Amino acid sequence: MWVAGAAKSALKKLVGFPFDNYELIKIPNEKKEIKIEIHSVGLLKGDSHALGISFANSGLDLDITQNLEIWTIASLEKISFNNFIQTNPINIIAGSGVGITENTSEICISNFSKEVLYENLFDIIPDGFNLNLEIIFPNGEFLAERTSNKSFGIVDGLSIIGTSAETYSSASPDQLEEAKKNLSKLINKDFKGKVVFVIGENGLNLAKTCNVKFPIIKVGNWIGPLIVDAAIKNFKTVILLGYHGKLIKLAGGIFHTHNHLADGRIEILVYLAVKEKIPTEIIVKLSNLNTLEDALLLLERFNKSIAEKLFQNLSNTIEKRSFLYVNRYVKTDIEIAAIVFDRKRKIRWSGTNGNNYISYFQLN
Q1: Contact, 37 vs 57, CB < 8 A?
Q2: Are the C-beta atoms of 22 and 11 separated by less than 8 Å?
């Protein structure tokens, strides 16, 4: 929303509109508009470019992008006579601090975010021109180090992967209530009693690219309470699809997985490594690492078969600890299946129950 606000203000300045200290941003397929405060706007490069600046204001205490400074630079490019049809009227450019996909160097932006930009900018673009829109997050590269972006192949900055106009903290009770409502909506005469829980946008995106036959719900970090809610609602199976760096917390009995509340990933892996009788010198090296992906790479260099066995045991432990957790609150025989992917979003491991469903998660 704040990127769109800054971009709309910059484009309006470029075509001669007076400056307003706010912009009304339309939401695709909805009637409502959101008022976005604009910090400043100005012309650059002999009035051929315009810079709009806004500050993200989600109001969420645990949002690292709260107060993120956003720059957008707008410029117009005349369409050549030979290619006058506006097939791609807005060229979105990743500037400094904006994440790109490592393999393709393309800007990491969701379809919803693109739709918001098109909805609010297209009608302002003069006939015969395309819009070049460069997005810059001056502090984006620094803040990205505090996210798991690199784990998913997103480099150089923050991704723009919003999927709705509302902002929910993945640690907020609002996120929990939203997920519970989505669970309730699934219950009907045709529902088979099986559901896929994904934690974040990367898990959701991966699930949607697979041949999944079951409904998918994004649960944020409220994994434990939502499995309990599914059991209370008499769901038969919950399939947990997630990144190893998140799901490992369940193996250690941590069922609210936000990093601000609890971490312990390396400590849990060390515990499992001790149980597997991995050599002490390797365990000491593991204990000094910062990420689970680094730990996986270290183990694979040491012995690939041992690394595979350890992470297979991790998947089984996720299932067992999750089942025990749910049964602390409600007596149930609900099936919990773990399917785990790595930093390249490649599905690598599954628990004993997960083995029954992993074929559904083959890429289309």
Answers
A1: yes
A2: no
Q: Which domain holds residue 103?
A: 2-158
| 8-state DSSP, 18 | P
Nearest of 47, 68, 46, 49 to residue 57 by alpha carbon: 68
Q: Decide if 242 contacts 340 (C-beta within 8 A).
A: yes
Q: What is the CA radius of gyration of the chain?
A: 23
Lowest-pLDDT range of 152-156, 281-285, 297-301: 152-156
d(CA 87, CA 79): 10
Tens of pLDDT, residue by residue over 311-350, are 999 999 999 999 999 999 999 999 999 999 887 778 899 9
Q: Are residues 114 and 146 in the same domain?
A: yes
Report the first-to-last Cα separation within the chain, whole angstroms. 32
**222-235, pLDDT tens digit by residue?**
888 899 999 999 99
Q: Residue 305 burial by CB count (10 A; 0-12/13-18/19+): exposed, middle or buried? A: exposed
Residues 177 and 154 in one domain: no
Residues 270, 221: Cα–Cα separation, whole Å: 23
Is residue 141 in some structural domain? yes
User: Nearest CA to 246 among 336, 163, 147, 168?
Assistant: 147
Cβ atoms of 163 and 201 closer than 8 Å: yes
Contact criterion met (CB below 8 Å) for 113 and 165? no
Instruction: Report the C-alpha gap between 332 and 30 in whole angstroms.
Output: 40
Q: pTM of the predicted model, to two decimals?
A: 0.62
